[in-house]
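protien #1 (seq + structre)
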Amino acid sequence: MGERIYLYDSTLRDGAQAQGIDFSVADKQAITEALDAFGIDYVEGGWPGANPTDDAFFAAQPAVKTTRISAFGMTRRSGRSASNDPGLQDLLAVNTPTICIVGKSWDWQAETALKVSKAENLRMIADSIGHIVANGREAVFDAEHFFDGYKANPGYALEVLSAAHAAGAEWLVLCDTNGGSMPSEVREIVAAVKAHLPEARLGIHCHNDTEQAVANSLAAVEAGVRQIQGTINGIGERCGNANLIALIPTLMLKMGFDTGLSDEQLTRIGQLSRLVDDRLNRAPNRHAAYVGASAFAHKGGLHVSAMNKDSRSYEHIDPALVGATRLILVSDKAGRSNIVNRLHQMGIAVREDDDRIGDLVKAVKEREALGYAYEDASASFELMALQKLGTSPSFYELQSYRALDECRIDSHDKRFTVAEATVKLKIGGQSVMTVAEGNGPVNALDAALRKALLPHYPELSAMHLNDYKVRILTPSDATAALTRVMIESRDDDGHKWNTLGVSHNVIDASYHALFDAITYHLMKARRA
């Protein structure tokens, strides 16, 4: 096991400064508990006194087992003593074991932003840290604008760190606040700091304005830094912060460092990433390193053929190390290897030299040319494959359907719509006709199908529509365009699956996607 790297999470403070992000108190509590369970060393809960949400969080901090909750603030103001500074008193009042304060390390910033002399800035930093330490708390010093400050005036930037270190700061964190530094610069400057203060414990805090926050953080570690500050999924102000989800596996699997996390904990990193996205009500980045849905997805036939021989051909690590799963995609670029591998992943045993595989490959390419996209609709692909292999399940036979959308004007001259659908099905040799209303023709069609099927298949009650998307495939045809409908469904256990339908009629495309969704769910339920 290599040297210890300490992980400092700033999702709830620096991450919360990103545009469009607004954590509730419940969000902050839930994320703190998740970070603690995962094994993060420090969780920065927010800035006491800055806003009601942070105050409420610190007033009701969740019980943690391994992590240290940190409160964030700034140095004392000029003209006040540390003991009489309201901001420092707010920091001490929340009773966290760790307090992180930010101070200026760029002389130009001190003189223009704070309008204090260089000497007064040093006193503000030393007094504040000394006061925190005297009150029995661990002090972390964030040297704001450190790399820009060092490049402008290296002597003063080092004086700032020396003042914080002498006052008792446990960590000196070098901040690339504007996110404009290069990895080579970071490595060189960290080495200079290490030579100047060999006994100090150094940290790094990078912003992602040039898409180099992760690279800069790793360069700092190579130069001697032993604490990394970052956020889950890289959220943060402007372009974001260093992404801990990418950094942690790299530190452990590529560089051999000890992060305090076990191999088993590392397999849960994708769950942590998705939890934060869920709390923010946003779709996960499918291309995210290590944890994205496409991180270990293989589409090209040449790639898949090589993967069959040795997975190292096109994978830099075993996906299982980070709790991920290899995904063989099926598309118009698929070869026999893609199809066979995908079928094997679905539990369908078939030989690669089976004559039916050629027919299936041809069918996929033909359908994708028409607008189907099976790489994002694996449930529809599985049903089509079973059909080609002669083992497709059949739960009902459609005889006809009709969907109406009527616009009416009420007595107050207000317009409203009424949707109604009628379906005629044959279920187990019995003809069934049902009528249902809904919030639009697709919802009415779904309701009519369920009304007919539920008496025969009660397990259908556990299936729910999760998402519905329509894409216009031939925009030049205007309202007569070919459309693709994608439906994401889920069951009561949280399992999700995607189905699709393609037609010039959006209702017809929706029906085909619904048909696949229902058939897939019933097939899986019956197998179980």
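ok now protien #2
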Amino acid sequence: MSAPKDSDSRKLLRRLQAVMAEAAEGQERLDRIVDLVATSMATEVCSIYLHRDEATLELCATRGLNPDAVHVTRMRVGEGLVGGVARRRAPVNTADAPGTKGFRYMPETGEEVFSSFLGVPVQRLGERLGVLVVQSKEARQFTEDEVYALEVVAMVLAEMTELGAFTGEGEALKPRHRQQVLFKGVMGQEGATEGVVFLHDPRVVISNPVSDDPEKEGARLVEAVDKLRLSVDRMLSQAGGDSEQKEVIEAFRMFAYSRSWLRRMEEDINAGLTAEAAVEKEQTAARARMRDADPYLRERLTDLDDLSNRLLRMLTGQGDRGTVPEGAVLVARNIGPGELLEYGRKLKGVVLEEGSVGSHAAIVARAWAIPLVLQAQGITTEALSGDPILVDGDQGIAHLRPDDMVRSAFGEKLAMAQQAQQRYASIRDTKCVSEDGQRIELMMNAGLMADLPSLPTSGAEGVGLFRTELQFLTRNKVPRRGELATLYSGVIDAAQGLPVVFRTLDIGSDKVLPYMKAQDEPNPALGWRAIRVGLDKPGVMRMQLQALLRAHDGRDMNIMFPFIAQMEEFLEARAHLTRELHREASLGHKLPGTLRIGAMLETPSLAFAPRRFFEEADFISIGGNDLKQFFFAADRENERVRRRYDTLNVSFLSLIEKIVTRCTQSDTHVSFCGEDAGRPVEALCFAAMGLRCLSMRPASIGPVKNILLKADLGEVRRVIEAARDAGDQSVRPAVMEYLRRR
């Protein structure tokens, strides 16, 4: 669609800018705008509808309709012609409004006398803000130039709405980015914190969308696009021989050199927009197209979205994150482990729009013991850096710009948590022995060198699981053997004589190395991962085993292989380690003082392995996260099903009991490692079923030890058995009732 040849839209935008400068805020400003647009477009009616919430529109200003309907008339998105514009995010242009499908008569507005209707969405970067409408009694179709002019005005209105230009009375007129907003997401890591938003990708704010000098703005745009194209060409030349990377960048380059993309932005500049406003208008249109596109096209339009962001940063000079402030809570659409680790331990919490409970970011957040909320949809659009935010990882919610009442209640929660931590500190050095004399070892999980300082302060008796894959996930190439040996040696040193159990590389499924070709698998959680990768591609496994042997340098060594599904896999993996032991001895390197080789039991099949497996393994670690999802056939990345099944289900506890019994018969040490080990009630039940070693995040050791010290495990076992005999599906209600009585 071409811009109006007589620059009518530019004149209209200049008048609109003058109104914005002269008129008071709030309702007066809205009223002046609808008067101006109606006069400029020679229509009897102009109305502005703004979103009260995601699902509801409210008539906030009108010229031509009944003024008593303002702040009274409301409609759902999709309801009537106005609601249809909002839902489809596209204009509706008709000469016969009452006869158009979807029309709904609102008697309080008096609109029945107007035949012609033109409505355009007021939106910014895919976010619906409202609808701008003009109507006339004359039955006529609005021209392409008129539609274009109204779209340009709507784009400027969107920018003004973002900047809080329509503040005043009425709930729908509160300024954006100043209201309190509650985001309900998914719990990624427990805990609660108060801080300020730090955006991983800062928003670009366009303070002046209107320009009087199209030539100057056009030159700015061309200069920025030339720089952008040079940067893309540079990316392509640096891709080297990587054909897949080249293919992605070639698609990126195609958009950067698109003449139609540049032409549309130049037309918007000729209509009266600044260069950055023109880029954002085209980006908003692309986002709207993206919603209904097929997956392939949506992926390509994402490239265009990324290009637009780069161009906006060049034009405005914005987008630099700056230094991480005190009390920062990172807010991002998604983030990789390497990017997250770059922030170090400066963050108090993380809130992501996307992500999953098994993602790399979740692993790092758990290692740091900071609250993490996932799938908080819309937060990157709403939040601004510096906004106050409360993160409740226990509930999976985030309060953005909370009011005093919410802040006060949250403060009480934080104070109670602090008091509990003080209580736990008093029992830190106490051995965990239940009331009936049962000794339980409490170990911590780790994956970063930064985790190890918390070992002495947590009260843990060692590291029950050190995840070695994080050192692979955060690099752009395979780490060298010497690097790994130095790192592992540092871990052993930091443990100060306490045992450390190293798990060999657990990749695949949701953990894909940046330098490893992703496997196109229909169900990656059940596919080529962990020990299966190590046995099929033994080069990396051998290198890691050599690094581990050299790191121990004569000290006691504990190593376990992940995702063992049958005895033969364990025996084959152990044979690899035996060969490396002989090799290291032949080279004159010191061998471990003692060597314990174990397996992670994460698949139900291994619970039924031959007795020989339990006799051959020095120890078994139950990997509760994977075992639970496979036992219930419930993907732990799927929020619809993962919470459907209770860890304290009698069938799952019976499986745990069977594993403990088989390990006892073969005198094999067994532990439970996973999120559930760090939940006090679950840990209590595991101990009652015979588990005497639990491994969890450091912050959970205090609460778990606190409940176990006061427990009679024999009594708890009898409560569980009574619930099981009564035919209960879960023992949780019975155990909770027992604890309340206690």
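Residues 214-238 form the longest helix (25 residues).
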